[in-house]
Amino acid sequence: MYAALFPGQGSQRVGMGRALYEASAAAKEVLDRAEAALPGLLKLMWEGPEEALTLTENQQPALLAAGYAAYRAFLEAGGKPPALAAGHSLGEWTAHVAAGTLELEDALRLVRLRGRYMQEAVPVGEGAMAAVLKLPLEEIQKALEGLKGVEIANLNAPEQTVISGRRQAVEEAAERLKERRARVVFLPVSAPFHSSLMAPARERLAQDLAQVPLKRPRFPVYSNVTARPEEDPERIRTLLLEQITAPVRWVEILRDMEARGVKRFLEFGSGEVLKGLVSRTLKEAQALSVQDPDSLKKALEVERA
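^ Malonyl CoA-acyl carrier protein transacylase, sequence as received from the core. Prediction below:
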């Protein structure tokens, strides 16, 4: 038994998905479909430039395509579907493609719009996000008391929390947190994701998502909003929209999976961010990434053990 994890923004890199495309017929089919839905996507993923790939409206479909391609390659090689699945932010959409809730082409077009709307919700430079390290959540919440314009955006690990909001408010929060001996790292992002400033993006995406059919997932997929597995298609539709302005409750998701007996985690797609968060959050868990033929082979050995 294992849980499938799918990464979000920040895990992209030029060349993502290419090795699996060349080695796996299933991955090739997924990526060819992605290219047909969004012409130019594969060139961007494989050749860059990095600045263009990093743009939110490009990065989101690229990560979704790479994550789903890795998952399909794993199934093609004899891997079994997961008992449970979750994705970090954008990755929740990839998890729903893997579970059959959303068709690949619909999801790719929607996450491109999601990225565009998120970028357009706040003028560049007016928002900011910062990672707060080595300080428990309770201490962070105390430091933010009475400070308007900054919110908790991602609960990534017990001592890794991300704050988001108006730049001035985030900078003031950073000073308060440093006084409490936290390490604060400003993130190279183009907008204050998972904050109430993203409300215009949520409203715009609602109109597009309403046009797309959702099916009941083949396996339970956790919502970032509730930190619980969700299976009702209309509830999933609502939660995918709420997710844009709500915090990512990743620590709670991993702990709930562990409580249900999950000890193995496979991260499908580009990078190893989620693998690292598992090891920081769950002491007894085993986590591996699946992003190329070598890591795929290793994951299959572990899953069959």
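Residues 2-121+196-301 form a domain with the Malonyl-Coenzyme A Acyl Carrier Protein; domain 2 fold (CATH 3.40.366.10).
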